[in-house]
Design a protein that fits this description.
Layout (H helix, E strand, L loop, with lengths): L3 E5 L13 H23 L8 E6 L10 E2 L6 E4 L2 E4 L6 E2 L5 H14 L1 H12 L3 E5 L10 H18 L5 H6 L1 E4 L2 E4 L3 E4 L17 H5 L9 H11 L17 H9 L3 H30 L2 H16 L4 H9 L9 H7 L2 H19 L4 H25 L5 H16 L3 E4 L5 E5 L5 E5 L6 H6 L16 H4 L6 E5 L8 E7 L4 E7 L9 H23 L1
Parallel strand pairs: 1-2, 2-7, 7-8, 10-11, 11-13
Antiparallel strand pairs: 1-14, 3-6, 4-5, 9-10, 12-13, 14-15, 15-16
Helix pairs in contact: 1-3, 2-4, 3-4, 7-9, 9-12, 10-11, 13-14
């Protein structure tokens, strides 16, 4: 505990929505660079008790799911009057696959688009402060050693340009990659939260099998990965569908939205939906088939045992946290079918055909009425059962439930998550505190509706009105400074108007003696972070 903590989440660097003009992407990058840069500069110059800051980003710092890269060939270009001219801005960019090669290409593009943000981050590290990156569902690729090495290398290059004689090894040692969570015993537990959201969970394994077994053929898959990839492949079909909030929609909401779309969009959306259904069902069937052969279960067991063995710890010390994890939707065939509403569509079609047969059959009216009544009651009962069984899509209650279990098991006073982009502070039933940090994402409405004004000096792509228009709830973070009990903890929001924080003290529960089981698990989690850090340096 030799550092004070700054904790925030969900910057989504590099995000480019489907069909979005590149100018909007650059504006968003400039706004965030100004916001984040003044924040880092303020805390870099204002230490507490002489200690450096450790900036902990609780997942989704990088949006690998939505980073586009330029085409490396002439696709999307036409030659007009001997001048190479793009058909459109959107034709210049593509979304690579979620594999290692695609991720490395996206990382290179990330440093070009967000160069100002990474310059601010490099200055922060040069000042002696630290950075800890927790993986989220949008940047789960940060678990890959090759990606960690590339990020360290690019930040080192920026730092060397800022300060030619800087000790790059010491600087890169202050960059820590945290698979799944960051944890300081008795102080704070920080996790992104997607492991409790079956729609966004990328893998079943903790740690990932490819890390423990050194697999090279890596490709990220989840329900949301497939949905996003389908969205980017068919931007016209998904136009105006708010995927950021769709987890709060019911089947009726989705159907009503669909019926209000123009016929052309309905057709495109139906075609995209059918294609996505086949992909997801096949992916779930393949995974279920491997589990029937017990291959997947064996791999998970080997990975967990290897993980514990590498840290000289018993499997029992790390296994309980894994029990709280929600199974990924795409790994279970029936869950996938339910998530896509296929079960209820089949039930509706089957019921409709059965009633049609009953109506035209040469039976007595009383017999027909009995069959129709029984079918109606059966339809309602089965529909209700399937609806209740459908995997939960609302992330907020799942995160709170997981936080309560984790705080009990680790006996930690504070659990911090993010993922939902919804700020929340809640006292748990066990007296511990749960905080969801929300997001630092620049609102889409700001980019698309900001009037054209004189660009702000130093930010050529940003309208002057933009910076003052970002609401405070988009810039929440936490500060933990005291190493005594209770810790000094505050929730902050960043003010654009005067470049200073607005802090609100947070009351944490009093210190309790950690149980032996908690101490064992603390050691396991700390060993995980340190080992992941040292492994990435070796690679």
């Amino acid at each position: 505990m030799d550092s004070n903590l700054l904790i925030l989440s969900d910057l989504h660097l590099g995000e480019q929505e489907p069909g979005e003009d590149r100018g909007y992407v650059e504006q968003r990058a400039d706004i965030l660079a100004s916001q984040f840069g003044t924040f880092l500069e303020h805390y870099s110059q204002n230490r507490k008790d002489g200690l450096p800051w450790r900036l902990v980003i609780a997942g989704d710092m990088i949006d690998y799911m939505r980073i586009h890269v330029p085409y490396d060939n002439r696709e999307g270009w036409t030659d007009v009057a001997n001048h190479t001219t793009p058909r459109s801005d959107q034709a210049l960019w593509k979304l690579p696959e979620h594999d290692l090669a695609g991720t490395l290409a996206k990382t290179e593009q990330l440093f070009k688009l967000n160069r100002k943000t990474f310059h601010h981050l490099a200055r922060f590290l040069l000042a002696g402060h630290e950075l800890a990156l927790v993986t989220g569902n949008h940047d789960a690729e940060l678990d890959w050693p090759e990606v960690q090495s590339l990020i360290r290398e690019r930040l080192g290059e920026i730092a060397r340009r800022e300060k030619p004689h800087a000790d790059l090894k010491a600087l890169q040692d202050r960059i820590q990659f945290c698979p799944r969570f960051y944890y300081e015993p008795g102080r704070v537990y920080i996790e992104h939260g997607h492991f409790y959201d079956g729609y966004c969970k990328t893998e079943d394994e903790t740690p990932p099998i490819w890390v423990s077994q050194g697999l090279k053929d890596r490709r990220l898959n989840s329900f949301s990965h497939r949905l996003n990839y389908s969205q980017f492949s068919n931007p016209k079909a998904f136009d105006s569908l708010p995927l950021h909030n769709i987890d709060q929609w019911s089947a009726g909401d989705i159907l009503l939205w669909y019926l209000k779309r123009p016929f052309t969009q309905q057709f495109l959306l139906f075609r995209a939906f059918v294609t996505m259904v086949f992909q997801l069902v096949f992916m779930a069937w393949s995974r279920s088939f491997r589990e029937l052969l017990n291959k997947e279960g064996t791999d998970r067991e080997i990975a967990l045992q290897q993980w514990a063995q590498d840290h000289n710890l018993p499997v029992e010390a790390v296994e309980p946290l894994q029990k709280y994890v929600t199974p990924a939707i795409h790994t279970r065939l029936f869950d996938t079918i339910q998530a896509l509403y296929i079960d209820r569509m089949v039930l509706l079609a089957t019921t409709g055909m059965a009633m049609t047969v009953f109506l035209v059959a040469p039976w007595s009216p009383m017999y027909k009425a009995s069959l129709l009544t029984a079918t109606s009651f059966g339809f309602v009962a089965i529909f209700q059962y399937l609806s209740n069984r459908r995997p939960i899509s609302e992330t907020i209650p799942m995160l709170i439930n997981a936080a309560a279990k984790i705080s009990n098991y680790l006996n930690t006073p504070l659990v911090i998550m993010a993922h939902s982009h919804h700020y929340e502070q809640k006292q748990l039933e066990n007296g511990k505190l749960y905080v969801n940090l929300g997001s630092w994402v620049v609102p889409h409405e700001l980019i698309h509706t900001a009037p054209e004004h004189r660009p702000l000096e130093g930010l050529p792509n940003t309208p002057h009105v933009a910076l003052n228009a970002v609401p405070d709830f988009q810039t929440r973070y936490m500060v933990i400074t005291s190493h005594k009990h209770p810790h000094q903890c505050s929730v902050g929001s960043w003010s654009y108007l005067d470049g200073s924080p607005v802090l609100e003290p947070v009351n944490l529960p009093s210190n309790e003696t950690l149980t032996q089981r908690s101490e064992t698990t603390c050691k396991a989690s700390l060993a995980l972070a340190k080992q992941a850090h040292s492994n990435s340096l070796v690679s």
